[in-house]
Amino acid sequence: MSKFLRTLAATSLLTVSSLGMASCAQAAPSASDKAEIEEIVRAYLLENPEIIREALIELQRKEAEAELARTTDVIAELSDQLFFDPRDYSVGPKNAKVQLVEFFDYNCGYCKRSTDWLQETMAKHPNDVRVVFKEMPSLTGPTGTSFTAARAALAAQRQGKYSKFHFALMNERALTEKRIMQLADINGLDSEQLARDMEDAAIERQIQDNLDLARQIPALTGTPFFVINDEFVSGAGIAELNAKLKAELES
After folding, report:
1. What DSSP line would sit under 101-154, residue for residue?
2. Within a 10 A sphere around the Cβ of 108, how many other Cβ atoms?
3. What is the per-residue pLDDT across 203-241, written as a single tens digit (0 to 9) for each?
4. What number is the average pLDDT over the span 26-48?
5. Which residues are CB-contacts of 182 (< 8 A; sequence separation ≥ 6)?
6. Model pLDDT for residues 138-190, shown as the tens digit of each residue
7. What is the pTM of this model?
């Protein structure tokens, strides 16, 4: 019998036992009683399999609600790390009405798809929205181009060119290590200085801290992931992003 059916059978057993043995509530049901009830439950479920579907739908709904609640709580607990890590590049005033964080990977197609929305938001709300950029290179291993691009972007920050270089990387369909360095040259970066800074242990530490932070957020299972004040959006759903942003701006 599956775990699901055993759970249903056990529940049924407890219910029947409590109703049918009220006079001897402390007596444990016999093995034959359990087997009989399990068989009754199994037969009933086979005759009415839609009950299993309904139960699974309800289970998924409750799990989604629980994950939402856990994520909201964690976002509140980690707000300083999310919004005000001094190492992160950000655009907009620190006291902006809306604090918006994006976790992203430079090889993520959905991150690239949401880039226009992010730039439009920054242009439309320069005083009301502060955007915080958090590299989360998770689509390749530590020696892959996701990590290389993240290290390069953070190194570019030291030359005051993070934003320009970030969007150049996001606009590339396929990143190779050679192309990353070409984009550095194209965008006016000192490539030799960039290469040295990319090897700095502090940059590696910042990336690992971002990854550790992301692991603590239950709903953060991939990129892009946006935190908008105490709300969040997982994925590049522009309609949902606009709705959440509008609600926060108008609150």
Report:
1. EEEE-TT-HHHHHTHHHHHHHHHH-TTTEEEEEEE---SS-TTSHHHHHHHHHH
2. 21
3. 999 999 999 999 999 999 999 999 999 999 999 999 999
4. 78
5. none
6. 999 888 999 999 999 999 999 999 999 999 999 998 899 999 999 999 999 99
7. 0.75
What is the C-alpha end-to-end distance of the chain, expressed in Å?
52
Over residues 124-145, the mean pLDDT reads: 95
Q: Is 160 left (phi over 0), alpha (psi -120 to 50) or beta?
A: left
Assign residue 244 a region (left: φ > 0; alpha: ψ between -120 and 50; beta: otherwise). Answer: alpha
Residues listed for the chain: 251
Domains of the chain and any CATH numbers: 3-71 (no CATH), 79-250 (3.40.30.10)
Record the tokens describing residue 213, joined without a space: 């932070």
Residue 18 has pLDDT above 70, yes or no: no
Alpha carbon distance 217, 197 (integer Å): 29
